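hi got a favour to ask and not much time before my train. below you get a single protein, a line of residues and a line of whole numbers that encode the local backbone shape. could you go over both lines and see whether the tokens make sense for that sequence. a few lines back from you is plenty, here it is:
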Amino acid sequence: MIHFLGEKLAELIVKYSLEIKKGDRVYVTGHTLSEDLILAIYGELLKAGAHPLLHPELVGESELRYRYSSEDQLKYLDDVFLKVVEEFDAFIQIFDDYNTKKLTFVDPELIKLSQGSAGRMKMMQTFNIRTKKKELNWVIIPYPCQSLAQEGNMDLYTYTEFVNKALLLDKEDPIAEWKKIRQKQDDICNHLNKAEQIQVIGEDTDLKVSVKGRTWENCCGLVNLPDGEVCTSPLEDSANGHIRFTYPGIYQGREIENIYLEFKDGKVVNYSADKGVDLLEKLLSIRNANNLGEFAIGTNYGITQFTKNMLFDEKMGGTMHCALGMGIVESGSKNFSTVHWDILKDMKVPSSKIIADGKTIYEEGKWLI
């Protein structure tokens, strides 16, 4: 029997990812199905002297909201959530799900109303400002459950083992292991911080972005677990060219397959998809979601298969991904949106490469620096 090492994960996020201090106010959210992990985190936070606030989401809550809410209700965001973002010191979100297809038949227009509301925009802007100032720390962590195991084509025991290994919980000292990764990726980021233009060449892809003046972020277990990527936000008006994404884009459980995007002066000017193009259209119409908010390269070669869970998939070694919408404020982005949607591309395909200022730095899934 494989057991999820939740207590080890709780210690990792409290002591390493968030470095919780006595008196910190910490908001914890996740579905009720991850109750054991929520309680493990709660206990670790109390031991650290923090003041945790738990907000578990009930099974069926999202479906009822979209089924019975009026337009005004979908746009409404209670001020209590804004208060959390304005005043708390840390935010922990547990990524779990009881049914990844629960919103399949929800009208994309309703999703747009909810995600693009003025209240949500204000909350996201406040979140970005405070995280940039290091006033609010946050982390997203996974919980192995049946629906996510099924999406990843695994049984629950195999998936639990996969999660433990991806988070390095199977190691004697996970904190020490993530610190080693942090040091190694610092070297990559220091090299990339000198670059001004990035070009991606690949299958049906030739995309150029400017990263001049932007910093590259070392993703090493501080805001996401599992982790393993280096990322930045391109200049808002710099993306030109086209890109086809190898893997389906997943948005709130819905799949958009074979996504093709054309950019001109930073904005999407043409798009197509084999499946879910209606949702793609609605997402692109949300304010600033037609801009490229992130450019990133996965560095975790221990994640070897696509699971339809971007928390894992975007870290997969041999891939790169872009995010539409909200940029990374820590890297210098000025693109604010209520959407930050990651889409993944396989870079192990022959002739795939990433070029920095005319020099190939990454080829067919491997670093050359």
Q: What stands out?
A: Residues 63 and 102 are 7 Å apart (CA to CA). The chain has two domains: 6-166, 188-367.
